[in-house]
Each structure stands twice: as structure tokens, then as C-alpha cells.
Specification:
The complex is a heterodimer. By secondary structure, chain A is mostly helical. In chain A, about 75% of the residues lie in helices and about 0% in strands. Chain A contains 11 helices and no strands. The chains are: A mainly alpha, B alpha/beta. Bound molecules: adenosine-5'-triphosphate and magnesium ion.
Chain lengths: ~250, ~290
């Protein structure tokens, strides 16, 4: 029965996405193209990324930061559904386990993260990037999407004002987008900073994606960190879902 | 049977001085709602009606006290209780990104209705509120009254055995309001327990078997409309006072009312039977509809 309810929550987001699929795809192409042009073509020519071209170095980073942003922002409308339209009351007066609502929402956000990743993979190939994609690569992307979908869910369920949702983007997602091993290797950072950056999940996603795309053996520690984040954030989501009915 | 035992709800809020304070929205309410009755909650704005409904429908947790649905209680059996209830909230809470039909399907899915049944039921429901043509329209495109009609039939889709309606007929035109009343009576006849709040005294008088009058979170009266009205006296005299405001007084006997009316020198004196509105004003000291 819980599976059925998860599908219901997922179905809702799927319907909404279907209504806007074309718009979604087009809008998801803008930022990656800009990154690829500016950093891949423009700056990239003069950067030595050790070994391959900077473009090859860049693509896993873009995939990491993009899946983070998309997964998080897929669930930021939930904030409006909770605070302004109150449409999530429908789920809480229905005979379902509220957790299935959370899981369905998170899965839908992962789907969005993966669709937008697919768009970037295609674009990057068109731009001439060279990288290999394995099932493990996709798994890392899905893990990353899951973590930030969970964080998005948690934020949408707890933050009171719409502006604060925006602040989350400005103060947390933006800095991470640039610093977590996405555009440059964190090895070049001062030591304190280096450790701090390695506490954040996005760094490990970037590292893993880059290793896998080069055909290197991925670090189990990074995997562990991502799994830990996913489990921890899920517990937070479960708690906040329960609390929403008080 | 639905039973409230010493139910209390506190909200913390910022008071006028900017400090934190606790507001008692619902204050120690105990009452019983019988199976199959239409039960009304009456009270001025901010009395606590919506808060009571929200606690009954498990959208809010009581700060103290217990709520029982027969043998079930809201702390341990919420999922089972949610199978029994239908909820029409005071505010319109459709999913703004879905169409009329999709909103109904979402509801049906959440209540585990098989697809075939859902489709049939949605067709019938939309027919009833004359929205069949709008099934693929965005809910945002409906007028206020249409939204409210849709809100009501959505809550009926899964055939609840207890129906909660928080001001169900606000903003409806008179014909539609009467149709909704008919619908509520029809549900009542088929054995559904109905709990509603309203500001329309006429609605309460027309529909409710019993009404509870709530003021500032407290239960101040509970009885049939007729008994309440008889309790305060069956005869009323109204007149305009010096400031051209309407005043009234209630009397137990026709004679007393007549004597009083005859002695009045003011304008527009009117003698009539007392009604639920008089009860309301007597007990809460405020007019209902402004
Ligand atoms: N979420 C909340 N946070 C803080 N205070 C609240 C909250 N919900 C309700 N209240 C307060 O509780 C009291 C009762 O509100 P409630 O909405 O139950 O009144 P009501 O009887 O439904 O009024 P109305 O007729 O206007 O709908 C009010 O003083 C209100 O300000
Ligand atoms: Mg109310």
C-alpha cells in the first residue's frame, strides 16, 4: 500500500512535469550551454587541467552542480504548496503514511535531476567533451540528486517565508556550486578550506564523477560520505513530515 | 460517535508589545457528536471553530485532551480515522498546478479508489456541480464559487462516513447554496455524520440537529436550535434606538413582549419569534454577519 501512495505523490509531480516538459528541457539547456561556452571554450583553452582538456575536466563538475540545483529547486515549489496554497493538506488528511508523500516527492525530484543531467551529457558531447558514462556514474548522479532533493524537501517543509527559500540558494547552493571541486580541483585550496570543502557532499560527487568519467577507480570513502548524507537527510525529512501535522 | 475530552489548543504568538505569548485558541472543550447527526459549530470570527475542525481532522495536534472516534483515538489510529473522514477546509486548497480533473484524480488516488471507480465518480460529481465542461481546465481558472463547489464534491468522492465542512457555503449564490444543503441532507439520510461550521444562522437552523456555540475558544451552549431558542425565550421585540442602531430584547411570553413593545416610544418597533441569531447575539454579545 505504501508503494501505491509513493506512486501517487510521484504521479502528481510527473503530471506537472509533463505539462511543461518542453519548457523544462529548454530552460535546462541555458545554464549548461553558458558554462560550456564560457569555461569550456573560452577560458578552457588557456587552462591546463593536467592530462585531458579542461572541457573534459569541467563536464563532471557541471553535472554535479546542476543535479544539485535541479533536485533542490524541484522541491522548492513545495514551500508554496505548504504555506500559501496549503494543497499538501490533501496528503495529510488522506489515509496514507506521510512518509510515502516524502519519498514520492524526492523520487520525482531525482527524476528531474536525471533528465537535466541527460541534457547536459548530450550537450557536452556536442561540444566535443570526452568522458565515459557507466552505470556507476549514473548512480552517483542519482545519489547526489537524492541528497539535494531531501535537503530541498526539508527546507520547503520548515522555512516560513518565500524569501528565505531564495536565501538558501544564495548562501548555500551558489557557493557550493563554485567551490566543491566543480570548476577546479580542491587540492589547490589552503588546508583548512580543503577539509571544510571535503565535508560537503557535492565535493565527493564531483570527485567521484570525475574519477569514473576518466575510467579511474572511484573512492569508497566518497561513496560512503554520499550514502551517509542520503540516509541522514532522509531521517530529517521523515521527522519534519511527521511534525508537519502538529 | 465522536468524542472530545478536554481538548485544548495553544498557539504561541507575538503580542502587541512584541513579546512572546501563548494564545488559547480552544479552551478545554468536551462534547459528543452522535453518529448520523448534523452538528453545527457556531461562533464569531476567531472563536476557534477552524482550529477545532483541524484538530478533529488531524491537521493539528491538541495541546491537551483527547479525541475519540468510537473506539479509535487520534493519537494511535490516525490512519484508520482518515479512512472515515472527508474534509472541506475553510480555505481553498487545490493543487494550483493541476487541472480540475487531475485534482479529483489525486484525491481519488490518495484514498485508494480504483481507476474505473474514480473516473465514474469524478464524472458524476462534476455533473452535480455543473463543472463537467471544466474537467481539463486549470483550477486557477474557476470562479470563487465554482472552486468552493468543487471543494465540496471532492471531499465526497471517497464516500466518507464523517464529513467535516468548514464554512461550506461561503461565497455561493443562493441556488447553489440550496443545492449544497440538499446534498448535505442527502448525505445525512444515507447515514453520514456531518460536522459543519457556519456564519449563516439560517444554515444552522435549516440543517443542524444540534449546534454548539463557541466563543473565545470556550463552549458556551450546546443543544438543538429549537431548545436553544426556547431557553432564551421565544419572543423578541426589536426597535431603533437613538443612534439609529437596531436593538432587541427577548421575552419568555407573548404578553410580556407585547406589553414591552406597547410601552416603546422609539421608531420601527417589531415583534417576532426569537431565532438562533438572537441566541447567538445574546450569548456571544456580537452580531454574526458584521
Ligand atoms: N496557525 C496559527 N497560529 C497562531 N494562531 C492561530 C493559528 N490558527 C489560528 N490561530 C488563532 O486561533 C484563534 C482561533 O482561530 P480559528 O481560525 O479557529 O477561528 P474561527 O472560529 O475559525 O474563525 P473564523 O470564523 O474567522 O473562521 C484565533 O485567535 C487565531 O488567531
Ligand atoms: Mg474558521
Amino acid at each position: 500500500m505504501m508503494l501505491y501512495d509513493i506512486i501517487t505523490a510521484f504521479w502528481r509531480d510527473w503530471v506537472v512535469l509533463k505539462h511543461r516538459m518542453i519548457k523544462f528541457i529548454l530552460s535546462r539547456m541555458v545554464a549548461p550551454i553558458l558554462y560550456l561556452v564560457a569555461f569550456g571554450w573560452g577560458l578552457g583553452k588557456s587552462i591546463n587541467a593536467g592530462g585531458g582538456s579542461y572541457l573534459d575536466f569541467l563536464v563532471p563538475g557541471i553535472l554535479a552542480l546542476n543535479s544539485m540545483n535541479i533536485a533542490f529547486n524541484s522541491l522548492s515549489p513545495l514551500h508554496g504548496e505548504r504555506v500559501y496554497h496549503k494543497s499538501i493538506e490533501e496528503y495529510f488528511t488522506a489515509p496514507i503514511n506521510p512518509l510515502s508523500f516524502a519519498i514520492g516527492k524526492i523520487l520525482a525530484a531525482i527524476l528531474r535531476g536525471m533528465i537535466s543531467s541527460a541534457i547536459i551529457i548530450v550537450l557536452a558531447r556536442i561540444f566535443g567533451a570526452d568522458f565515459s558514462i557507466t552505470p556507476l556514474f549514473l548512480l552517483v548522479l542519482a545519489l547526489n540528486s537524492a541528497i539535494f532533493a531531501e535537503i530541498g524537501f526539508y527546507a520547503a517543509m520548515t522555512i516560513d517565508s518565500y524569501e528565505d527559500m531564495g536565501r538558501f540558494n544564495t548562501y548555500i547552493l551558489m557557493p557550493m556550486s563554485f567551490l566543491c571541486g566543480t570548476f577546479f580541483s580542491p587540492d589547490k585550496l589552503p588546508l583548512v578550506f580543503y577539509y571544510f570543502i571535503h565535508v560537503l557532499p557535492l565535493t565527493h560527487t564531483s570527485l567521484l564523477l570525475r574519477e569514473i568519467s576518466r575510467g579511474a577507480v572511484p573512492s569508497m570513502v566518497s561513496f560512503g560520505v554520499l550514502l551517509l548524507y542520503m540516509a541522514g537527510c532522509f531521517l530529517l525529512c521523515a521527522r519534519v513530515t511527521k511534525k508537519a501535522q502538529e | 460517535m465522536l468524542r472530545l475530552e478536554g481538548v485544548k489548543k495553544l498557539f504561541s504568538y507575538k503580542n502587541a508589545q512584541g513579546g512572546k505569548a501563548a494564545k488559547v485558541a480552544v479552551d478545554d472543550i468536551s462534547l459528543e457528536i452522535k453518529d448520523g447527526e448534523i452538528f453545527g459549530l457556531l461562533g464569531p470570527n476567531g472563536a476557534g471553530k477552524t482550529t477545532i475542525i483541524r484538530m478533529l481532522t488531524m491537521l493539528a495536534k491538541p495541546s491537551a485532551g483527547n479525541i475519540y472516534y468510537g473506539q479509535l483515538n487520534i493519537r494511535d489510529d490516525s490512519q484508520k480515522i482518515k479512512e472515515l473522514i472527508g474534509v472541506v477546509p475553510q480555505h481553498i486548497n487545490f493543487d494550483q498546478d493541476l487541472t480540475v480533473g487531475e485534482n479529483m484524480h489525486l484525491h481519488g488516488r490518495l484514498h485508494h479508489m480504483p481507476e474505473k471507480e474514480r473516473v465514474k465518480c469524478i464524472g458524476e460529481m462534476l455533473e452535480f456541480v455543473e463543472l463537467s465542461g471544466r474537467i481539463n481546465d486549470s483550477v486557477r481558472a474557476l470562479s470563487g464559487g465554482m472552486k468552493r463547489r468543487l471543494l465540496i464534491v471532492r471531499a465526497l468522492m471517497h464516500k466518507p462516513s464523517i464529513l467535516f465542512l468548514d464554512e461550506p457555503t461561503v461565497a455561493l449564490d443562493p441556488q447553489v447554496r440550496r443545492r449544497i444543503w440538499d446534498l448535505i441532507r442527502k448525505m445525512h439520510r444515507s447515514g453520514v455524520t456531518v460536522v459543519l461550521t457556519t456564519h449563516y444562522i439560517e444554515e444552522a437552523e435549516n440543517l443542524c440537529d444540534r449546534v454548539a456555540i463557541i466563543n473565545s475558544g470556550k463552549l458556551i451552549a450546546l443543544d438543538t436550535p429549537k431548545a436553544l431558542q426556547e431557553k432564551i425565550g421565544s419572543y423578541a421585540v426589536e426597535w431603533d434606538n437613538e443612534k439609529a442602531e437596531r436593538e432587541f430584547k427577548i421575552f419568555r411570553s407573548k404578553e410580556a413582549a407585547k406589553d414591552f413593545a406597547d410601552g416603546l416610544v422609539q421608531q420601527n418597533v417589531l415583534r417576532r419569534r426569537s431565532n438562533l441569531e438572537d441566541v447567538f447575539v445574546e450569548l456571544t454579545g456580537r452580531k454574526v454577519n458584521g
